Amino acid sequence: MSLKLGAEKEGGIMHRTMTLDVLVIIEGEIEIHLDSGEKKVVKAGDSIAQRAAMHKWANVTPNNGWARWVVFMQAAANAIHTYIESVVKEEARSLAGLSALHYIRREIYTDRLLGTP
């Protein structure tokens, strides 16, 4: 995927895909916005994993640069169940001080280790 400077993917609208996504940033800098209000900048060489997360992307590359990344997507069996569960767990996470991005990564790695779909 490519995104010119200042552009937002999906017209800047928060969206969700019922997939497990692994993104590898090839060039530039991308800011991910989550529905929790959390924002994170990922740069060339970084990767991020998310499962059925509400999000949007913005290119924040300096010097009018493009942002390019590769996305590997797989259908997320139980994605809707995961979403409902994540809404309930969001309150617990905020009380525990865990960020949404940390939780997403931990959940994916846990699923991978346990072999859950």
Please give a handful of descriptors for the protein shown:
117 residues, alpha+beta, Jelly Rolls, four-stranded antiparallel beta sheet, three-stranded antiparallel beta sheet, 2 helices, 7 strands, disordered C terminus, RmlC-like_jellyroll, OryJ/VirC-like, RmlC_Cupin_sf
Helices and strands, with pairings:
Layout: E1 2-3, E2 19-27, E3 29-34, E4 39-43, E5 47-51, E6 55-59, E7 67-75, H1 79-96, H2 100-114
Antiparallel strand pairs: 1-7, 2-5, 2-7, 3-4, 3-6
Q: Architecture, CATH level 2?
A: Sandwich
Q: Count the helices. How many? A: 2
Task: State the domain count.
Answer: 1
The class by helix and strand makeup works out as: alpha+beta
Instruction: Tell me how many strands there are.
Output: 7
Q: What's the helical proportion of residues?
A: 25-40%
CATH homologous superfamily identity: Jelly Rolls
Major sheet, described briefly?
A: 4 strands, antiparallel
Query: What's the Cα radius of gyration?
Result: 14 Å
**End-to-end Cα distance:** 26 Å
The averaged pLDDT comes out at 71
| The level-1 CATH class | Mainly Beta
User: What fold name stands as the CATH topology?
Assistant: Jelly Rolls
Q: What global shape is seen?
A: globular
Uncertain segments: 101-117
Can you list the strand order of the major beta sheet?
A: 1-7-2-5
Beta-strand percentage range: 35-45%
SSE order: EEEEEEEHH
InterPro entries: OryJ/VirC-like, RmlC-like_jellyroll, RmlC_Cupin_sf
